[in-house]
Design a protein that fits this description.
four-stranded antiparallel β-sheet, mainly beta
Length: 134
């Protein structure tokens, strides 16, 4: 998709989804047209993820080794973590004690790919996509 800005009047727009984006500048005037080098950036909005009423942050995602799960408040019960490959195979299982807010998750032994991380605490469940890339 192409976005244009003309006459030094910037448009405001929202990116449609998180991910990798590429951009360059095209300038046109009486002398001709030129293009800048292509640059890129990664857009990772604060999705305001919630689990058991607490805000969840998973970072960095993508990760090359450790994924860190942070909660805005401690949980009341132990948390069960399961990590599934895209074909549904369980590749990691881990338990976290109640009353903590920060949990390191070691993914260094896994091959690059997309995984689904599932958390369960009592009646609450949470699923989020995780990307492992070296």
């Amino acid at each position: 998709r192409t976005y244009s800005v003309a006459d030094n009047n910037p448009e405001t727009f929202r990116l449609p989804a998180y991910g990798q984006y590429y951009w360059r500048v095209k300038s046109s005037n009486d002398c001709g047209t030129s293009l800048s080098e292509i640059s890129n950036f990664q857009y990772l909005p604060d999705l305001d993820l919630r689990f058991a009423g607490k805000k969840v942050v998973l970072s960095p995602n993508p990760t090359s080794a450790y994924l860190y799960l942070s909660l805005s408040q401690p949980l009341e019960q132990p948390v069960q973590l399961r990590l599934f490959s895209v074909n549904g195979a369980l590749v990691k299982r881990q338990s976290f004690p109640a009353s903590k807010v920060f949990f390191p998750i070691d993914l260094s032994h896994l091959p690059n790919g997309i995984y689904l991380l599932q958390l369960e605490e009592g009646n609450f469940s949470f699923v989020q996509k995780v990307i492992k890339q070296d």
